[in-house]
Amino acid sequence: MWKNEIIALAACAAMFQPGCDREKAVAYAAAKSTPDQPRLFAVSREQLARLRVGAPRRVNWSVAVRTTGTVDWDATHTTQVIAQVSGPISRILADTGAMVRGGDPLLYVSSPDISAAIAAYKKARNQRDLAGQSLNRNKELLERGAIARKELEAAQAAYNDTVTDVQNSLQTLRIFGVSKQDLDQAEQQGAPISPELPVRSPIEGLVVQKLISPGQLVQAGQTTCFLVSDISTVWVQGHISDRDLPSVRVGDLADEVSASIPHPFHGVVSYIGAMVDASTRTTPVRIVTPNPRGMLKKDTFVEVVIHTKTAKNILAIPISAVLRTMENEPFVYVEAQPGQFARRLITTGAQQDGEVQVLSGLADDDRIVSEGGLFLQFAENNR
Asked: What is the CB-side half-sphere exposure of residue 179 using CA atoms within 13 A?
């Protein structure tokens, strides 16, 4: 097969040598010497039979926008695990890559805050019990007429204040992860509450980052211990150029392909940015993508095709008609006269079903070489 193609190319080059036809050489030189006219060269009937020439066609396309993107964790299902008390880490139960459920303990912190909170709760409860006894005694005294009603009301207010103190101290323990049942059980058994506090995972997911080490001193509300993410869904962060932006809408379906993964992924456009990136002049777009088996990793590079609901009437030509100059500029060969052709630089757009959109450079009535343009390019370059 290669031998036949080489012979054909050699024959094509021979047919276009200036010495084979003086009249054609003169015509070519005259066209070349005129800067405002495209360079024309003639094609013999034999060579013309090998070319396929036709006109561009008008088609209605559902616009497909092509771009690239990178994978990011789904921020709505990703959270930091922050210690709620201060103190040294006594035990670490989870490591990077571990699957955890919501409420699972990830580490333990030995904290004096726990002892202080328990002591405050017990003190508030003792005060409540004492105030309750005083209130009951004042009720009996009032029934006997031994005290005034205002003294009973004062005792009732004092009791209400102690009840509030108990609820507040108990709420502090709940925030720390200590329940009232734990306190009651410890008191029944006569054992003190352990000063170790578990730091639990807020959600179910994968531990994607571990940011602490054994014995490290953590600060309440400040030290991030882990990052947990539900990687069953990820975000693909793409970028849309100005010319494609009007076609893209929230809800458009998208296909994503990674060179390292054998099958495509499918997502939905969930957000289109309100600002243009000043360095790239593109608008960010977020595509929510299911991630079976967690194959898409953070920062994976993917190629994206967004299937928009926008339809356009465009001028299209076969992809095989488009060639490239030494400067990588797209061009086609246009039949300027019967049997005579010239290069025409064009601007291309989207591709679909073996055709490419022509944004500029061609008119509807132009006739282009849709197949065989490589032979013309070879012959032209060897003049």
From this structure: 3
Judge whether residue 30 has pLDDT over 50: no
Kindly give the pairing relationship between strand 265-272 and strand 282-290.
Answer: antiparallel
Pick the CATH number of 64-74+231-311 from 3.90.550.10, 2.10.109.10, 2.40.30.170, 3.40.640.10: 2.40.30.170
- HSE-CB at 70 with a 13 A cutoff on CA atoms is 4
What are the φ and ψ backbone dihedral angles of 355, each rounded to 5 degrees?
-125, 160
The dihedrals phi and psi of 339, each to the nearest 5 degrees, come to 80, 0
Given the candidates 2.40.420.20, 1.10.101.10, 2.60.40.10, 2.40.50.140, the CATH classification of the domain at 2-55+322-381 is 2.40.420.20
Say which residues have a Cβ less than 8 Å from residue 39's Cβ, sequence separation at least 6.
28, 31, 32, 342, 343, 380
| Closest residue by Cα to residue 313 from 250, 358, 362, 347 | 358
Given the structure tokens 């757009």, which residue do they identify? 349
Pairing of strands 233-241, 330-337: unpaired
Structure tokens at 374: 């490589």
d(CA 366, CA 373): 15
pLDDT digits (tens, 9 = 90+) for 163-218: 999 889 888 888 777 766 767 766 665 566 677 888 999 999 999 999 999 999 99
